[in-house]
Structures are given as structure tokens and as C-alpha cells.
Amino acid sequence: MAAVDVRELATHNSRDSCWLAINGIVWDVTAFVSEHPGGANLILKVAGKDATEQYETFHSPELVEETLGLDARKGIIDSASIPPVDKQSELKRQERTSPLLSSMVSVNDFEGVAEKTMTPAAWAYVSSGADDEISTRENGRIYQKVFLRGRVLRKVGSVDCSTEILGCKSALPIYTSPVGLAKLVHPSGECAIAAADGKEGIIQVVNTVSSMPIEAIMDARVSKDQTIFWQLYADKDLQKSETFIEEDLETTVDTPQGVGIAKANTGFINADIEWATIEWLRGVTKLPLVIKGVQSVEDAVMAFDHGIDGIVLSNHGGRSQDTAQPPLLTLLEINHYAPHILDKHMQVFVDGGIRRGTDIIKALALGATAVGIGRPVLYSMSGGYGEYGVRRMIQILRNELQTNMAFIGAKNVREIARGMVNTRRLEKLMIGSVRL
Ligand code: HEM
Ligand SMILES: Cc1cc2nc3c(=O)[nH]c(=O)nc-3n(C[C@H](O)[C@H](O)[C@H](O)COP(=O)(O)O)c2cc1C
Description:
metal-binding, TIM Barrel, heme, heme binding, eight-stranded parallel barrel, globular, Flavocytochrome B2, Chain A, domain 1, 18 helices, alpha/beta
């Protein structure tokens, strides 16, 4: 490849002619600028420059080639002439300014560290919700409106929190939800989560647009038997998704897997997913299928009738549509209008605002198999804590869950029963009638 002079690169700094250097290679992105799913401005800010640091904050190394193709390469640049960013010393600075991990005693403690140590852009990206952030707030608040009804004199002895999620063993009825761009928070990104989850015996859900390559995440597992679930954002070109599932998911990835499917609106993502797409997916893979983002009892019943293996009641942490109802309320709807779908072939998962062991008990009492933890995963790896922070966060939840299961009179997760929660204050918030 031809050598490109840094001064020449600098002249291609506009929408009309836009070049970037990434890891020493110069790319012509002129045709791509206005199609960039992250927005044209992000690219234009680094036009004519070495964009490696900004690019790597959001993307895996191979994405540029996959997206633009080799023809978009203009040549090689001597990236040694560009002063490197010392990521290790930045991490050391964060470690020095963060409190001792042992002083973190509740999941919410990590949020305070994250706010102080994350860059303003990362903090805004992770902590924010859509519009007025009403759903983000209400997701958590709703758990405070449910009261526990413990049973006494039940000889609980030692409490066993383990369960099975889609046929895979999990030490706790929790999993880490897919959270994009973990690398924004810690250089090990999703690899730190994989290692922490493996050591604590829980399952990680990884999304299509993870910030670390899937191979690196798989290598970060503690053993080949560690389960990872994969979330698929179906491509506009369904054939691409089919090839991905057949070639990458079922062959490269060699442990028991789940596939999740989510609907969203950015660039390459297929926003036309319908129930027929689910039938297509069922034909493409024998892996368990989970639909994430179910927000009504009507759709929960549709999923059940389509033979889906699991649903995640979720409004994506209030990040998509503001004022979407809290997932716990959707779970209550299912209890009220369609209890026949609980405890059958389809498992129900819930996420959004879960921060306490008692929150987990409340969701399980209403029929959830397990709950997803989103933002706390990223908060707990901030401040330079990485894998150790995520482990501490999981351990805090485990301790709270064990203690509260003993209080409530349940020695294992199957003994957490509907009668152990009083949901009276929520019932007036629930929709008055539905047509199923
Ligand atoms: C030529 C270089 C680039 C290519 C080919 C590219 C490609 C893409 C693609 C395909 C997506 C969709 C999601 C994904 O697959 O990750 C995306 C999203 C995004 N990109 Fe880039 N990108 C480039 C450079 C950059 C740069 C330099 C930045 C930041 C300064 C950036 C920031 C983002 C952000 C913030 C998103 C949205 C992520 C989300 O909402 O989940 N990209 N980009
Ligand atoms: C930074 C960030 C990125 C996320 N990215 C995705 C994603 O790519 N796909 C998805 O289905 N959900 C995504 N979510 C939503 C989470 O999977 C989860 O549903 C939500 O965060 C749960 O709420 P909580 O953060 O209150 O625990 C993201 C959440 C955050 C905070």
C-alpha cells in the first residue's frame, strides 16, 4: 500500500473529501460520512486526523474493514509520529482517586464512583435515559411500592440461590444485560464482564455491537464451559444475519448459547422485524430463542403462542421510549391476565432498575426466572475497578439476596412464592382490561 503523508491526510478534512487514519491505515470515508449510524458529526470532528483513539472507544478493530471494504483504503501512515495516549497511566490515576472496593457496600455506591471518574461523555451515555427520563426513574421506584410478606418458622438453614436459565446453570437468578460500548468505561470492556461473570457463576448477555471482538470476549471466559448468551440485532439484510448465526454463532462459539433478538432503529439494524421474522429465526437455529423488549401482556402471550423459549420484559432501562411502563408492571399484567403462561415452556426475565436483593425477590415472586442488571455493570467497572468491581457488585447482590431469602422464609428460589409480595399499591397502575 502507498504511504500517505500526514500533511496530505490533513487536507481531506471535510464532508466533500473525508479521510481518517485508524491504526496506521488511512481510510477514505467520504461516501460513508452521512450514513454513519453514530452521526456524521462524530466523523467530521476527526476528519483529516488520526482517529484511532476515538474510533477504538466505540468500535472493534475489524469493524472499519467490514463496513467500508478494502477498496476504501488510501494507504499506510506512520502512526508512530502521532503521540500515543497513555491509557495505563490514566487507569492508574483513576485507581488512585477511587475509594477502596471494600468500601462499596451497596450496588448504588458504584454509581457515585462512576459519576466522579467517568469522562463526561461516557457518564452521559451510560446514565441517561430517553427524553425526560421518566421510565428510567420509574423502573426502579416501582420496586419500592411492593412490600414483602415474609413467612416465619420455616427452618431455612443455608440458602441456595442457584437456578437454571434456558437450561444453563447459574449461581444466581441474575445475569448481566447487554450494555454496548463497555470499553468506554474500562479498556477491558466486555472482557472484564465475561471474566467477572465466569468467576461468580452467572451468565453474560453480549450484544451484536459490543466494543470488544467476540473472540476476545470468549477468550476472557474462565473456562470453555462458561455460557455466554448472544443478542442479535437482525440486519436489514436478513441473509447476513442468517450467515452470521450459521457461521459465527454456531461454529466459532462453542458453548451452549442463547440468541436474543431486539428491535431498534440505527443504521444497519432491521426495524421491520415482525412475528414472521421470529418464525424465520426459529428455522435458522435450534438454539433457545429469547425476545427482549416485551412491554405488554398481549405480546407476552404472542411470544408464548409462537413457542419462544424466553422473553425479557424490558424498556431497555428507559433508554428507548420515554414513559414506557416499568417492566415490573408488565409482569404484574401477566400475573393478572395470563397466569397460564407462567411456569410453562417459556421463561420470563425482567430488567430495569434492579439494584437490591429484595428487588430480585419481588420479580421472582411474580414469576420471573431471573433478572437482568444493566447500568450497575458499567458503573461497577468504572474508576479502574474493571473485573474486580463487577465481581464485588455481584457479590453484594448475592449477599442481599441470601439474607432476604432467609428473612422471607425461602431456602431456594423455587420457594419464593406469589404470596410473599403485596402488590396492592401497583394494581391501580395496571391497565384495566386487555383483549387477548
Ligand atoms: C471509519 C470509521 C467508522 C466506521 C466504519 C464506523 C461504523 C459504525 C457502525 C457500523 C455503527 C453501527 C454500530 C456498530 O456496528 O458498532 C457505528 C455506530 C457508532 N459509531 Fe462509528 N464508525 C466509524 C467511526 C467512528 C468514530 C470516529 C466515532 C467517534 C468519534 C464513532 C462513534 C460511533 C457511535 C457513538 C455509534 C453509535 C453507537 C450506539 O449507539 O450503539 N464511529 N459506527
Ligand atoms: C450503556 C447502555 C447500553 C445498552 N445497550 C443495549 C443494547 O445494545 N441492547 C439492548 O438490548 N439493551 C441495551 N441496553 C439496555 C440493557 O440491556 C438493559 O435492558 C437495561 O440497562 C436495564 O436497566 P438498568 O440499566 O436500569 O439495569 C443498554 C443499557 C445501557 C446502560
